[in-house]
From TrEMBL:
One of its GO terms (molecular function) is oxidoreductase activity, acting on paired donors, with incorporation or reduction of molecular oxygen. This is Cytochrome P450. Its cofactor is heme. Keywords: Heme, Iron, Metal-binding, Monooxygenase, Oxidoreductase. Residues 1-25 are annotated as: Disordered. Belongs to the cytochrome P450 family.
Length: 402
């Protein structure tokens, strides 16, 4: 785990361009698959970049991303209120597994399938509005952000008129270096007050929504599904339910338009939409920080002993570019199948909302191909700018014309 330069590199790495992978990934995969890194907090951690190693660790049920232990690394410059900090639910492994089964019922294929027509109608509406405003437009702001916010608000029974506030509160929870601790604490207090009021209203008048369902589960799991856990769950779903998908819509469209041949390929064959979404997820070089794991017991990774007490960061995007797993991994291939990428994680803690995210991405792509076949980037790819200072990746804007 030593690094030969004598200096521990700072992580996350800076890429050469908004859609390009950092130059460090390939050499680390080849020569130093278990690498020491320094985080925004100043703490040291270990980085995994190979597919097999990342999958192995994510699939191990002993280790979670809640970094509650005293010797766990702080991920961000301001840890309090962050998604990986000590504000986690602090459940035991068995309770967490049961909790996931309960929450997972909200994201069954049947429920997501029933939501698809509404998602498509909203995507059509947002594209109508974008067309009305005229070309050029910022696709991220006009479609990428509002659609997933509407979807998760509809699912939770929360008015999406509050979406700008959700966005700000969400960003503070996902801050790596962007916000001060004072800003984070103030935003999270507002978020908590908002949710408490909303939960009280739903308790008085339940509806056919996920927060009403969560309220009915309080006291489940032999009393371990507490009011606090229910509130944290609602909060987490609001954040996770829109932030990553919002960013992915913009990145996916940018990747597909960066090489016009990709867009033309989809125009010629709509049956490739599902595969194109999966390949966009695999090819995404800007997903954000990755997934940390606190190692509570000594383990072997790639013939290297990782001692107990280590915080390990699994870089999903670097693993998704591993030539050992994917032929021509550096190429975007819209016909790639099978495509066992790790964009949603793996194992017992894989993303609960992945079926919903896939449905949103496929629906957006279908609507854009149908409505705006002449869509193209309105700026050179080199001018696209990343969102900085957050745990999740994304583009500030995706300027398009048609």
């Amino acid at each position: 785990m030593s690094d030969t330069s004598g200096q521990t590199p700072h992580y996350p790495f800076s890429p050469p361009g908004a859609l390009e992978p950092p130059q460090e990934w390939a050499p680390l995969r080849e020569g130093c698959p278990v690498a020491s890194i320094r985080l925004a907090s100043g703490d040291e951690s270990v980085l995994l970049t190979r597919y097999a190693d990342v999958r192995q660790l994510l699939s191990d049920p002993r280790f979670t991303h809640h970094l509650d232990s005293a010797d766990a690394a702080n991920i961000t410059a301001n840890e309090s209120g962050g998604v990986f900090g000590s504000g986690g639910t602090n459940m035991g492994a068995d309770t967490h597994r049961q909790w996931r089964q309960l929450i997972g019922k909200a994201f069954t294929a049947k429920r997501v399938s029933a939501m698809q027509p509404g998602i498509e109608a909203m995507a059509e509406h947002l594209v109508d509005e974008m067309i009305k405003q005229g070309s050029p437009a910022d696709l991220a702001g006009a479609l990428g952000f509002p659609l997933p916010v509407w979807v998760i608000c509809d699912l939770l029974g929360v008015p999406d008129s509050d979406r700008d506030r959700f966005s700000y509160w969400s960003d503070t929870m996902l801050s790596l270096t962007r916000f001060t601790q004072v800003e984070i604490d103030a935003a999270q207090a507002e978020f908590d007050d908002y949710l408490r009021a909303h939960v009280a209203a739903k308790r008085a008048t339940p509806g056919d929504d996920l927060i009403s369902e969560l309220i009915s589960l309080v006291g489940a799991l032999d009393g371990r599904m507490t009011e606090e856990i229910m509130m944290l769950t609602a909060k987490g779903l609001l954040v996770a339910g829109h932030e990553t998908t919002s960013n992915m819509i913009g990145k996916m469209v940018a990747m597909l338009l960066a090489d016009r041949g990709r867009w033309e390929q989809l125009l010629a064959d709509r049956s490739l939409i599902r595969l194109a979404v999966e390949e966009s997820l695999r090819y995404d070089a800007n997903p954000g920080f990755g997934i940390p794991r606190y190692i509570s017991e000594e383990i072997q990774v790639d013939d290297i002993t990782v001692p107990a007490g280590t915080t390990v960061v699994c870089n999903l995007a670097a693993a998704n570019r591993d030539e050992r797993q994917f032929d021509h991994a550096a190429d975007m291939d819209l016909t790639r199948s099978p495509n066992p990428h790790l964009a949603f994680g793996a194992g017992p803690y894989a993303c609960l909302g992945q079926a919903l995210a896939r449905t949103e991405l496929q629906t957006v792509l279908k609507v854009l191909l149908d409505r705006l076949p002449t869509l193209e980037l309105a700026v050179p790819v080199a001018d696209l700018a990343r969102r900085e200072g957050l745990i999740v990746g994304g583009l500030r804007q995706v300027p398009v014309r048609w």
